[in-house]
Fold this sequence. Notes:
Elements lengths: L1 E4 L4 H6 L1 H10 L5 E5 L4 H7 L4 E4 L15 E4 L6 H7 L5 E3 L20 H11 L24 E4 L11 H13 L4 E3 L6 H11 L13 H9 L3 E5 L2 H9 L3 E4 L5 H4 L8 E4 L7 H7 L7 H4 L3 H22 L1
Parallel strand pairs: 1-2, 1-4, 2-3, 4-5, 6-7, 6-8, 8-9, 9-10
Helix pairs in contact: 2-5, 6-7, 6-13, 8-9
Amino acid sequence: MILVLRALGVGDLATAVPALRGLRAGLPGRELVLAAPAWLAPLAELTGAVDRVLPTAGPQRLAWAGPPPEVAVNLHGRGPQSHRALAATRPRRLLAYRNVAAGHPGGPAWDGDEHEVRRWCRLLHAHGLPADPADLALRRPAGPGQPAGATLLHPGSKIPAKRWPAERFAALAGELAGRGHRVVLTGSAEERELAGRVARDAGLTADAVLAGRTGLAELAALVADARLVVSGDTGIAHLATGYGTASVVLFGPVPPAHWGPPPDRPRHRVLGVTQHPGTDRDWAAAGGVGTHPTLAAIGVDEVLAAVDEAEQAVRVSGATAA
């Protein structure tokens, strides 16, 4: 049995898909148990690599009651807490990055300047296991997304610094609606008020607000059948990558080189000045409140241009396939 720890969020699980599939291919015939939050179970199923989810809110809450796993894999972080949590299950082998403080001197060295997908693939490669960083596709949910063909705007983020200003999302929504897009606003239940404000300011009707009204499986279906996704650097952007749905992702302060879609897929456009001398220092000195200035520097016209580029890439790829 393989026990994998990745007790984080949607984007974290989506970026671990190539590593999960590598474990499935490299260690066949074994049950793969993913220690992750219970609400992520629908997405875990869509990876096609996970047999069951062990509900886990974080490494400090890893409640493993079964026999020692044959292999434990730390896809959660570099330790020491996550290393120790897995070591406590007494696995025959622990695949993890080197952390002497956690009693794990083996494994490759951690690289802080590395894309999240490649980070976990490199861990597997160091242990002689396959993992293809391009293997990001997710299985389609059983039911169709409703409404199909919608343009999804996702104005929220758990991290306030990563939220593009709401008034710009409203301006974008109004412009896209005027161009014939069926615009809907997605988000969590906590983001429903934000999504409602964007919709009202854009002149959209109340039924355009889907924030808080979709479970994870429904959101995945919505993204799979969407025309376009525009969001910050958050989970829904990774769903768009997994389904090949055209997307524009607004980055700041974290660079797309660490969390962005593959740069060789033109239907996924990234925007944001991620390095600007003094920006972080000045923002922090001012209290570090609200949208990060690297994200606030992105204008509505710039996003609209990126939307055109993403949709053109879809048309070109469709014509090529035909």
